[in-house]
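Subject: sequence -> structure tokens, single chain

Hey, anyone have a minute? Need the predicted structure for the following. Not urgent.
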Amino acid sequence: MKKICCAGCASMEAAAEYTKQYICILEEMVCRISCAKCDGSISGNFIRLMMPMQQAAARMAEDVPCYTDDRCTLDLACCIRSESEKDMRRLDDVLCCCACISNCPKDVSGHIRKTGRILSSTVSAMKNACGSCDPARDFRRRIRLLYCAMAEMIQAAMCYCLCGELCPIMDDMARHLDDVLNCI
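Reply:
Had a minute. Here:
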């Protein structure tokens, strides 16, 4: 069900449909983040808050090929989807073990405040990332906002004592985020 026209340029209808899909993905991400149960484990909280962001990245990457034939964007989307799905599996695999690692209440509240600020500004920026007639450009701009937030979330969490199983996953995620942000 490709809705693209010649030369990689989306029709106005396709661009509007792409933006509509993006808004649905964003609203679902916000809902999942809002429903995430934060407790006394920064590692567990990080995973619970990162999973909806990874899901949104994967869905955005899965969706964009329906609206563009821009080769660079399609390659980027393929990489993002693959990495997001891998990261979600890895995060899910360690959630139970990591959620058992408790942090002191002062650290937990500090981390929740930091992530709250990151998420609030990111959601606001993503809601205001209005669409153009070019879904490829819109995808790159919006995924940049999401990836910057994910990188900030990792940096914010790394300031605290974390589950040893989570740290290598976060390092891999940070490298991937940097790679993508450098090529957008």
